[in-house]
Amino acid sequence: MKNLLIVASDSALNHELSWHLVSRGYRVFSAANQAEAMRQCERKRIDLALFDTELPDADGAELMRMFRTAHPETTTILLAEPKTERPFSDAILLPKPVGLDALEQTMRDIWH
Question: What single string gives the DSSP state of each residue in 70-81?
Answer without folding.
Answer: H-TTSEEEEEE-
